[in-house]
Design a protein that fits this description.
The protein has one domain: Nuclear Transport Factor 2, Chain: A, CATH 3.10.450. The chain is built from four helices and four strands, in the order ααααββββ.
């Protein structure tokens, strides 16, 4: 019984740590997607790696924000899975549809990849 209890504590700690990581990734994706919707380049790029931040233009961000606004009011994200390369997949819900958000983080937790694409039909 002592061995069982000794094993239970590390498993409980691991579960808390893993759920905290998932919550952090969800919040990063949520905050960034909200910033894209709001067409706020400073808020978008603050979570990006320096390399990725350099690639963002105001025109591109405006186009992406317009695409999101064409779907209606932003409602939030739902994680839908992960990719073999470590990217996270989300569904961004709007009042008139949804878009797919793919996000990849570097080891420090900065966004090294972020894409928004229409769902496949």
């Amino acid at each position: 019984m002592k061995a069982f209890r000794a094993l239970l504590l590390p498993l409980a700690i691991a579960a808390v740590v893993l759920s905290g990581c998932a919550a952090g990734e969800q919040k990063t994706a949520e905050d960034t997607t909200r910033a894209v919707y709001d067409n706020n380049i400073d808020a978008v790029t603050q979570s990006f790696t320096p390399e990725l931040a350099k690639q963002v233009s105001r025109a591109q961000l405006g186009q992406l924000s317009d695409l999101m606004h064409s779907k209606g009011d932003y409602k939030g994200l739902t994680e839908t899975g992960t990719e073999p390369d470590g990217a996270y997949d989300f569904r961004a819900d709007f009042s008139n549809g949804s878009l797919i958000v793919k996000m990849k983080l570097d080891p420090s937790g900065k966004i090294s990849g972020y894409r928004v694409i229409p769902p496949s039909t």
